[in-house]
Amino acid sequence: MFLKKSKKSYKGKGYETYALTESYREGGKVKHRHIANLGSLTPEQAQRIRLVLKAQKSEDVFVGPLSDVVAKKHFRYLDVAVLDHLWRQFALDRFFSDLPYAEAMAVNRCLEPKTKIHIRKWAEATILPRLQGDELTDDFEIYRALDKIADQEAELQKHLYQQCVALGLAAKNTVFYDITSSYFEGTKCILASYGYSRDHRPDRKQIVIALVITPEGYPLYWQVMPGNTQDVTTVEELLVMLKERFGVEKCLLVFDRGMVSADNLKAISGQSLTYVSALDKDEIRTLGLLEPEFSDLVAESGDTNLLALGFHAYDDNLFYREHLHRGHRYILAFNWHLYREQQQNRTKRLENVKAFFASYNEELDRAQKSRNEQATGRKIEKHLRKLQ
Fold first, then answer.
1. Which long-range contacts (C-beta less than 8 Å, at least 24 apart) are formed by 54-58?
2. DSSP state, 193?
3. Which long-range contacts (CB under 8 A, 24 or more apart) does 300-307 make?
4. Which residues contact 104 (CB under 8 A, 6 or more apart)?
5. What is the mean pLDDT of residues 117-138?
6. pLDDT tens-digit profile of 300-329?
7. Mean pLDDT, range 174-203, rounded to an integer
8. What is the distance between the alpha carbons of residues 202 and 195, in angstroms, rounded to a whole number?
9. Which end of the chain, C or N, has fewer beta carbons within 10 A?
10. pTM of the model
11. How many CB atoms lie under 10 A from the CB of residue 241?
12. E strands, the chain, in order
């Protein structure tokens, strides 16, 4: 059965009509039998009828309302596909060609971290095995995969560096370096020890993690160190790594003030590298970069006096002034709006303290019994801590 279209003309005007028609054979000849005349149809109506007729002929074609369509099986796709694209962009599929679990572990860690025993089941519910073209069949391979990845750590870092250079991510010109920490609830990690906690958990053992990234945020180098490692002690090893592992001869290092020491700066300069870091507030005073009356001048007129003092406007909020001192270049930055906000907050805190002491003194004056000195001191300290 099919939809037959006929054309007719009446008074010089053309018309199209449709009919349900059935083919049959008689005497060795193919003939048509009209089942029903449908009259004039729009192209959309005609197409819908054709789809219905086609569905009758094929089990693979379904025609019905959208509400009747139910997905019996689906796979997590979009976020997995994006990470798979990045994986291939950095040629990690070739680097880990003998470790199919490597990508599954990395993608899972980004999206929905699970223990090793559950990663295979998680991956099979995603598009990842279809993108890889390999099924994750060995249940025990995942337990060996992380050790194999760790054994290739140095080569992996070198590979990432080469890929960043090839992709034009300016890895040869500038790198950012920082240190962080992560604490443990358990006690069996051989690197874990007590140290300066950035998580504000000095009661927990921790590890220290060093990370080098490009200005765009792509990682090049990382190292896990004992939890009591001090930031300042890691810079010289970083310099050796940049030269020996990556062959970096000239580069700008960007790091925070926690890594600044005379020995580190001397070592960096000795390798013809340049650096950008920050000074502590007391160092700014020691170097004499600010006028003694700076606070008073800024408080009076703000932007106007900053320009008069040789500052330049970087944007509406930030002003800067350059200084050359003993072969070093210093850029003094000042955010006028942030300064004003901090001064207002400071004034409010001082007023709060004054009001607290006035009220507490009245309470002590009215007390009929002598107050415990230590208890009074603890109450005052508790209130002051809230204002920090």
1. 56/1
2. B
3. 302/336, 302/340, 303/336, 306/334, 306/336
4. 119, 120, 122, 123, 128, 136, 142
5. 86
6. 666 777 888 888 999 888 999 999 988 889
7. 89
8. 7
9. C
10. 0.67
11. 18
12. 2-10, 13-26, 29-39, 174-183, 206-213, 219-226, 252-254, 274-276, 312-313, 318-325, 328-335
Collapsing DSSP to helix, strand or coil, 264 comes out as helix
Q: Are 243 and 264 in contact (CB under 8 A)?
A: no
Distance, CA of 294 to CA of 20 (rounded, Å)? 93
> Which of left, alpha, beta for 375 (phi over 0: left; psi -120 to 50: alpha)?
alpha
Query: Domains of the chain, with CATH numbers?
Result: 2-68 (no CATH), 78-151 (no CATH), 169-276 (3.30.420), 287-388 (no CATH)
Which tokens go with 225?
């160190």
| CB within 8 Å of 306: residues ≥ 6 apart | 298, 319, 334, 336
Of these ranges, 153-162, 185-194, 270-279, 366-375, the one predicted with the greatest mean pLDDT is 153-162
Check pLDDT > 80 for residue 56: no
Joined together, the tokens standing for residue 120 give 């295979």
Report the side by side order of strands in the sheet with 274-276.
219-226, 206-213, 174-183, 252-254, 274-276
Burial of 367 (0-12, 13-18, 19+ CB in 10 A): exposed
Query: What residues contact 136, with CB distance under 8 A and at least 6 apart?
Result: 100, 101, 104, 120, 123, 124, 129, 142
**Confidence at residue 206, expressed as pLDDT on a 0 to 100 scale:** 94
CA gap 175, 129 in Å, rounded: 35
